[in-house]
């Protein structure tokens, strides 16, 4: 019996997704990286990874989730490299790096998963199922993480205003 090969996304479909979602992807990457130019580089690198690895795509998830997951990982890689090469560990909170306004500074203080869920929900306007696919977690985990992020942000805001 012949096994059906998983359907691989075409380079045309990937390019179309890039054109349609670039600005959303860039906003999320900028939230993760904290710098518009580095965020652009992260999105470019993410799509380069997608195109290079499209032959290994398994048809057990959505193409959209796979692309988001790849771009988020690329942005996290850029952020890690940036933090490793920074002169000070506080680079993520310095003015002029994308975290200059008070709310962004509070978001930067959240645990990584909470930040990612917030970015994908409010910067990319993804629903819980798409966030779950992008981060390779369950929808219930997305809801719980978002709830915890809201609680933590409220607590941080109260601390700032006391």
Notes on the structure:
Helix content is 70%, strand content 0%. The protein contains 7 helices and no strands. The protein has helices spanning 11-33, 36-53, 63-85, 102-108, 112-123, 128-135, 139-160. Mean pLDDT is 85; it is low at 88-100.
Task: Summarize the entry for a quick read.
The protein is an all-alpha fold and 162 residues long.
Annotate the secondary structure layout:
Blueprint: H1 11-33, H2 36-53, H3 63-85, H4 102-108, H5 112-123, H6 128-135, H7 139-160
Number of helices: 7
- The secondary structure category is mainly alpha
Q: What's the helical proportion of residues? A: 55-70%
Nearest-integer average pLDDT: 85
Report the principal-axis shape: globular
Low-confidence runs of at least 5 consecutive residues: 88-100
Main sheet characteristics: none
